[in-house]
Amino acid sequence: MDAASLTAIYQSSKDSVRFFVPLNNKRYLLSFDIPPDRIVEMDWWDSVQLTHPSSPGTILKIHCTPAQHNSFRAANDTNTALWSSWYLEHLRPSHPAFRVFFAGDGGYQFHPSPSWPPPPPSSVQNQYTTTDNATATTNSHNSDDEASEYPPCPAFRQIRTRLGAPHLLLLPVSVGATYAYLRSFVPLPDWCNPFPRHSEGVTGANHMGPWDAVRVLRVMTDARRDEEDGAVAIVGRRTYEKGLSEEELCL
Fold this sequence. Notes:
Metallo-beta-lactamase domain-containing protein; alpha/beta; N-acylphosphatidylethanolamine-specific phospholipase D activity; 5-stranded mixed sheet; Metallo-B-lactamas; disordered C terminus; 251 residues; globular
């Protein structure tokens, strides 16, 4: 969110708005002339509760949660401010809690293989349907060797374990992020382009592609359980029968 948007939000709701930011990000909002008493800095696993006089007993609980991404605004402030995700709980008397996870921008796993991401398996007949005899394929590019050498970010599993499975997940889906964006401005052939092509998985440590977003969905919701449970995996508003591979869920 840019400075103009933040300033406009403050100007429109001066009496009630609060800004919650990770550690050492308050300074930026102060530079936009937002008063310090409207800004709350939070560390990972910090939480605050908001209430409203018109809704007794109703609570919005905000958790600052971990995320995997570097931070900088200039060359001299690299990684001097915390990066985070956010987890919200809406609590009402006599109602079940509703939990939302906002990942913001972050990565799940570095994938060094130039053949990553893998192509859709041949067992998939079309984008939305499967047949009873469709067989799941094994992702040869996600071997145990790669997983051990480049382990996935543990934050998502930790968040689910500590705070519970969210009902709604807002996850980023990247196609290369900053690197691909900069490369798009250079109208040169590959052999002399200062931004050479690379595997989309190389930026996976900071920006998750669709294949990793599906993995995070699974980790945080336990949607994929053992087959004995008769579980299904739910992605958006579509339900896929058990037995599909990770690549099929990415379609």
